[in-house]
Design a protein that fits this description.
By secondary structure, the chain is mainly alpha-helical. Helices cover 80% and strands 0% of the residues. The chain contains five helices and no strands. It has helices at 8-15, 19-46, 49-66, 69-78, 87-113. Helix 2 (19-46) packs antiparallel against helix 5 (87-113) and helix 4 (69-78) packs antiparallel against helix 5. The longest helix is centred in the first third of the chain and has 28 residues, at 19-46. It starts with 7 loop residues before the first helix and ends with a helix.
Amino acid sequence: MADAPVDLAHLARYTGGDKSLNAEILRLFDGQITEMVAQLQSVLEHRDQKKWRQVTHTIKGAARGVGAFAMGQAAAEAEPMDPVRHPDQAGQALETLKSQGEAVQAFIADYLAA
């Protein structure tokens, strides 16, 4: 599972490998992905650079915390972008975050169903 959207070994460092705790954390993160990607869409539409950085920074930390490293990296790359001066670049970054988020959410759904 080296290429998995979530590194469960990383998450286990914090949860002791407790499956119910993993599930709870992953459920919370699943909801957070949906909420924050929607926030970024709104931020991009309103061209709010400060809020863009805040939300991408939050995604970066949350993703890295649960072991969703590719999503965390996408957020890190998006964080310094300026949706005011470069809305197309920010829009592309948002699409990457959406794609990464969907992969993580699919992984979480499979994990919870197992």
